[in-house]
Every structure is written in structure tokens, then in C-alpha cells.
Amino acid sequence: MRRDPAGDVGRSQEMDETVAEFFRRTILKIPITEMMTVLKAWDFLSENHLQTVNFRQRKESLVQDLVLLCEEKRASLNDAALLDIIYTQFHRHQKVWDVFQMSRRPGEDIDLFDMEQFKSSFKKILQRALKNVTVSFRDTEENAVWIRIAWGTQYRKPNQYKPVYVVYYSQTPYAFVASSLLKSNLPLLGQALTVASKHHQIVKMDLRSRYLDSLKAIVFKQYNQNFETHNSTTPLQERSLGLDINMDSRIIHENRVEKERIQRVTQEIFGDYPQPRLEFAQYKLETKFKSDLNRGILAEREEPLRCLVKFSSPHLLEALKSLAPAGIADAPLSPLLTCIPNKGMNYFKIRDK
Amino acid sequence: MSVLRPLDKLPGLNTATILLVGTDDVLLQQLAGSMLKEDCASELKVHLAKSLPLPSNVNRPRIDLIVFVVNLHSQHSLRNVEESLHHVDASFFLGKVSFLATGAGQESHCSVHRNTVVKLAHTYRSPLLFCDLEVEGFRTTMAQRLVRMLQICAGHVPGVSALNLLSLLRSTENPSLEDL
């Protein structure tokens, strides 16, 4: 095959400019340290292809080379979307995930789930409603599928830079959706999910976090699996006295009994296992003011007071678990705080009964 | 017997016992560790308690010095100390009680005002020490001071008694506090 001296310019005209730009921006997002891993997972460029590229050059030049390579290999928009999915899978906590639960009508028969049928049905529903939409799929383990949707309108092409991600676990009624700014498309998305998976209804749970794996653990009730068995051989006394098992005998804890009680209560509530990771818990209160004094303007007020209490932490549940042992709070903690993983909620609305 | 009295037990031979009272268990333990690292002619014993009264069914040595630790970051720790003070006999406050405020270095985290602890210490006529127990250097220095104070309170330093020490430590910088 003869090579045109000005070949590069000629060849690049075969790939749409917007797609090329999409490739460039997507590859640019990937940190250099992960570049190889992500590209290998993508599996569009083979080992041989990747060897022709110099990975030690400056990032901008590397990205340019990779984009040219993609153009050479006639990569399509779908391939780019797939790369975007893989990048997001590696960086899932850059997005905030909501949890949706679907349900069937009582007594409805559950057919065997067919992944391909689900995907084609899902895509068809979206494409019928919105002509301009890009839908891409990537299967993962545990019978799950990652779906990427780029939304457009009747007259505008899909915006590839504001996609919505859905992770659907087909053996369960749960789907995780990375919050999108385009709230208007959520009902359509819900409908597509519900119908394609042969459910009847979809409901948004009051559970939200950046940590997809923790959300999974909470919703699938997998967080209380304790894999460490060596702890059980250490007697409770030694463990509960905290920092130093080989403590100086000249230090005497007067409240040993109380400390042990706190450790025991904390362990009963939170268990021995690492807690799922959430960043906040939010309580919306709409309650009437209660006062011991029975006096004052607030006590006479008929309407409930509105108040929002938000707890934030890099790791909320571990922080709550350490409150009583650290002496900052009494044990047991309020059930409003400890029920979070059990109830699968971190948004609460509290009203007077 | 829910009230601590300074002279209701016989002293142990060459033993000095300090009682640290506070909600921050971790900090108390660290301070205890620092104190026990000091070279001291007397035998030191450190008792840690979250609050008073102490459990009554325990055989414990005579307590020579009580230090109430208030964490300025926590209203809870202040309230805890205030309630515990009711279980200490008045005669303890003749030089055998001291207050220690921690956390003043992180101004933004403080929910207890400095003046509150100053007033509290003044009310009980006892010295108030400030130390960020989380910082090892400060903690070591404070441990040295406390060991010295403890030795005096236990009567191990000839010529100086707890009451002497109290009058030496009394601060004259805020005369207006006398009017409180």
C-alpha cells in the first residue's frame, strides 16, 4: 500500500473531528501511571500497536500519537465511549452514585434474564424517545453491566462530555446511577431500565455516596462479612483496653468495667468488620419545638421547625464507630446514626409522629 | 464512699499516686506514658478515670494529686469535669488538685472558651495548666512538671508542701478575676 507523503492529514479526515476530539480529551484524562493498564483493558490497540508509541514523551505528545493511532485503526465513537466507560470504572469515586430499586408486580413471573435482550431493549427504548442518544455497554463480573448514555435532543447531537453511567446488577433489582446534571432525562432512564429488565416500578433510594463498592456492600448486605479470624483468639479484655496490650502495670484504669461495656456495645452495633464507606448522613427535621421549660416563643409555635443536620466525614461510619471508645459520645449511639447500613439510607426525613 | 478525701488512707512507702480525670482516654493514656518515662526517685502510679465518683469496691492507694483534663474542643469534656468536681472533698483543693486544658493550639476546633476554664480553676482556687497533649514535645514537658508537682504533693520533697506550691503557682496576672 503506497503511503501518501501528506498521508497523515489525508487519513485523519476519515474520522469525524468531534470523535477525534472526544478521543483526545478522554485519553488526556487518564493519568500517565495508569495509561498502559487502561489501554490494555480497552483492548482496542493491540500489544504491537502500543509498542510503536513512545510512552516516555510528554503527555500532550503521547496523547497526540495515541489519537493518530486510533484514527489509523478506524476507531469509532463506540470505541471511544467504551474507553470512557473503562476510565470511569477506574475512577468511579469521582462521581456521586445514587441507588435505584426496581420491583415487580406481586406474583409476576420472573423469566430467565437475557443480557443481550436487555441491552437491545434498553437501547431501543431510548432511541425511540430521543433520536440523538449514544448508548454503550460493558459487561463486568457478577452479572453486572455498565451502561454509558450520552444525551442529545431532537435537534442536537449527543453531548459526549456529560454522560450518565448506570451500573445494573442483573440478578438483583438494583441499579446505581452516577448523578447527572440533566435531571429531565431521569424519568426516561428509569422507564428504559424498568421495561428492559422486565420490572414494573422503579424507586430512588435515599442512599448516595461516591463509593460504589460501599453502596453495593450496603444494598446487597455484604458488609458484615468478617474475613479476619485471628482477632477471635485474643481475649476481649486485652483488645478492649485500646492502644497498648503490653501496658505499663503502673497505669490503672479506674473505669475498666465501663470501658469494656463501651467496647462490647460498640462491637455489637458495628461489628468487627470494616464499615462501608460513606461521606455524609443528612437529617431533615420537621418537628415541633420541645422544651422542658414550657415557656418561650418557640414552644408556642404551631408549625414545625425546619432544620437540616448533616454529618460529613471522609469515612462516616468508622468515625461514628470510634466516637464512644474515644470518649466523645456515650454508648450506645442514637439509633438514627447506627441504622444507616441496616436501613440502607443516609438521607432521613424526620417528622413528628 | 463517693467523695475523694486526701488523707483518708495511709501513704505507701515512697509511692506517689496521681489521678487523671478526663473523657479523652487516648490523651490521658499518652500523658500517663510520658510521665512514667521520667526519671523519678519515687515510685509513680497513674490512675486514669473518665469521671468521678470512682468505683467503690476497689482497693486503691492514697491519691496525692488529681488533675482534671478538659479538652477545649469538647463541651462534653468540660461538663464531665464540672460534674466530677462535686465528688471531691474540699480539703483536696489545698494544692492537691490541678486543671489541665488541652487543644488550645487549634483555635478553630475550640468550642470551650479559654475564659471558661480560667474561671473554673479560679472558682476552685487551683492552678490551671495549658498543654496540647497531642504534641509529643509539649506533652513531655508537661509530664515533667506534673511529676515534680506530684512528688511535692506526696510529701517527697523536703521543705515544700502542696500548700506552699499552691501559693507559688497562684497567678497574679489577672487581678480582675478576684471580683468574679
TrEMBL record, chain A:
Keywords: Centromere, Chromosome, Nucleus
Signal sequence extent: none
Localization per record: Chromosome, Centromere; Nucleus
Gene Ontology cellular component list: chromosome, centromeric region; nucleoplasm
Keyword Chaperone tagged: no
Xref: InterPro entries: CENP-NAC/CAD_complex, Chl4/mis15/CENP-N
GO annotation (BP), single: CENP-A containing chromatin assembly
Keyword Nucleus: yes
Family from the record: Belongs to the CENP-N/CHL4 family.
PANTHER family referenced in this protein's UniProt entry, alphabetically: CENTROMERE PROTEIN N
Protein name: Centromere protein N isoform X4
Protein species of origin: Vicugna pacos
From TrEMBL, chain B:
The UniProt record lists the keyword Nucleus: yes
Superkingdom per UniProt: Eukaryota
GO cellular component: cytoplasm; kinetochore; nucleus
Keyword Hydrolase listed: no
Compartment(s) of residence: Chromosome, Centromere; Nucleus
Any Pfam family hit: CENP-M
Gene3D superfamilies recorded: P-loop containing nucleotide triphosphate hydrolases (3.40.50.300)
Cited InterPro entries: Centromere_Cenp-M, P-loop_NTPase
Keyword line: Centromere, Chromosome, Nucleus
Chief subcellular location: nucleus
PANTHER family found in the cross-reference section: CENTROMERE PROTEIN M
Descriptive protein name: Centromere protein M
Organism of provenance: Vicugna pacos (Alpaca)
Lineage: Eukaryota, Metazoa, Chordata, Craniata, Vertebrata
